[in-house]
Amino acid sequence: MDYLLTEEQIMVRDLARKIAQEKLKPIVAELDQKEQFPASIMKLLAEADLFGVYIDEKYGGMGGGVMELCLVTEELSRVCGGVAVSYAASALGTDPIILFGSDEQKKKYLSVLASGKKIAAFGVTEPNAGSDAGAIETTAKKSGDDYILNGMKHFITNGGDAEIYVVIAMTDKTKGQRGSSAFIVEKGTPGFTFGKKEEKLGIRCSSTRELIFQDCKIPKENLLGKEGMGFIVTMKTFDLSRPGVAAQAVGIAQGALDLAVDYSRQRVQFGKPISSFQGIQFMLADMATQVEAARALVYSVARMIDGGNTKVAKESAMAKLFASDVAMKVTTDAVQIYGGYGYMRDYPVEKFMRDAKITQIYEGTNQIQRSIIAANVIKESLVNSKKA
User: Among this protein's residues, is 363 annotated catalytic?
Assistant: First the structure.
């Protein structure tokens, strides 16, 4: 389908595709097997200025938005979901600064993040606070001109490899969700260390680590927005970032579909390619339609956000929900088309299935997405009924 991309968007997409196909594809299996952070690819993406596609030009970015970020993420995901999330998670850590940072904070951090010289991460999830982001236990106590952080985050993408972290901590436990605040914490700050690196089912080359804070002192200038805004920062950030997860899911699904189509043309059974069998054709038709429908929804939501619409919780949740469910379905069907070979690591399609699963889980499980969508649909119905 023709999505009427601008010349600059086509350039961004094609550049990301070139890096993914020529530089990333030859080393995907090795990165996955060794669970090795893709530092060399991150460097190439930085040299191509792709870390700045969604950052304002006055901070050294390209001045694009969520759409450009989705295009890069999708192209990387067609080859490796782990590399794609390492790239996109830096945007997740950057978005709170874009949304809520002061002029001084933006000048200090956005330019270096746009250059890709440093990458970012977002620290919300804890052992007892996953989908319930309001249940965080990490604390930040005011002490003169500083805040003292204590606690732990886990399952943090880019943990240990990122240099700039946005961390959510409780500044007033008595206020519940309204008692959390957001802070910028730099790697190397005394009292800030890292725990174990997780061994995962998929996206194995991405780093997923614990963040540990033990009397970690950070200046009050590193508070994002105001005290008590942590939950708002988190939710608004996810509204902005969920289309990126959805784009990752679309890319993973497209990559698996590409492999399945190619294999079906090459695999011969009963004297003819399996692509000639109606059973396989119907599977491929459904897979292609699902991928295109997911892409259309993701691009639509991305453009909605870039157009200035700030009330996108429902639409962002829809994009993430639908695209990730499609990714799981399409990759599973791709493995089925490969048959026994699809289950073997000698063939790349099994990795797409492993990588797809996480898109249904992080940045809010799909059950949480359905709750968000339903709540907004019901609210809209009540508003419309009152107007009538």
Answer: yes
